[in-house]
Amino acid sequence: MLMPAAVLVFIVLGAIAVDFAVAFLGEREVSNAAAAAANDAAGAALDQTRFYADGALRLDPVRAASVGRSSVRAAGLDHLGDVDVRVAVDRDAPVVTVTVSARVGYVFAKALPGGPDGVTVEASATATAEEQD
Amino acid sequence: MRLSEERGAVGGFEVLPFGFLVFVAGTLLLTNAWAVVDGKVAVTAAAREAARAYVESPGPAGTALEQATVAARGAIQGHGRDPARMRLAPVGPLAFRRCARVTFEVTYEVATINVPWLGSLGGGVVGTSARHSEVVDPYRSDVPLGWDGGVRCDA
């Protein structure tokens, strides 16, 4: 009985390793999407009215949210579930933080009795708009 | 000690080859799954590098696309994969102007091993793909404006 049990344990451990790698990959994907969205929002959501009025670099929260969501939508995260995007703009500085969360489905764990079918991953990225001479 | 008591000493031996086969099949299945995951990691990095290279390129459009291709191939190669099996394609319009949204999709075909009882996954080749999208900086110097002469982001 030891041999089949050992084989089963080995395969289950391997399956866990693959599932964790899939979860880590999903986290990397949402992290990339968050970084790109923050970068896009910091550049494209500059409040031009405020800039031309008093020269201050500030971001338009509505515009930042629109650009951020658009960027994540274009990132091709369709294979992940429950993709959620949160965009927060600093009122006193041209800083935007984009947080993306999503549900990553496991490959092997759901085949095990009582095993989880996936995990929720989340990543945040912050970008600052800066003026260069 | 009687000989008859030792009969059970080799009982269950016949299951060992079966266990070994399950072990081999399970290992190959995991190897295939890992290869696909590893391929996905590579294409994710390649798509990101391609989009970054394009939006950061000094231009013009042809050079930007060339730099995106070089960056994607470099990322694939850096992950120990064959760049010849990679396909890089823009998703949607590809415009090199300020505020244009640029999306690249990288596809890579991962070869899989034939698994006993299960056969080969995806007919021996599993395609993995990833996308990355970025906006060309709206306030960059030396990058053309939009068709109407203004800066309008493709949100």
Description of the molecule:
The complex is a heterodimer of chains A (133) and B (155). Chain A is α+β, with helices and mostly antiparallel strands and 133 residues long. Chain A has one domain. Helices cover 48% and strands 23% of the residues of chain A. A three-stranded antiparallel β-sheet of chain A has the order 1-2-3, with helices on one face. In chain A, helix 1 (2-44) crosses helix 3 (61-74). The mean pLDDT of chain A is 88. Chain B has one domain (15-135). In chain B, strands 1-2-3 form a three-stranded antiparallel β-sheet. In chain B, helix 1 runs antiparallel to helix 2. The radius of gyration of chain B is 26 Å and the shape is rod-shaped. The termini of chain B are far apart.
Which SSEs are present, and which pair or pack?
The complex is a heterodimer of chains A (133) and B (155).
Chain A: H1 2-44, H2 48-54, H3 61-74, E1 81-89, E2 95-105, E3 118-128
Antiparallel strand pairs in A: 1-2, 2-3
Chain B: H1 15-56, H2 61-78, E1 86-90, E2 101-111, E3 125-135
Helix pairs in contact in B: 1-2
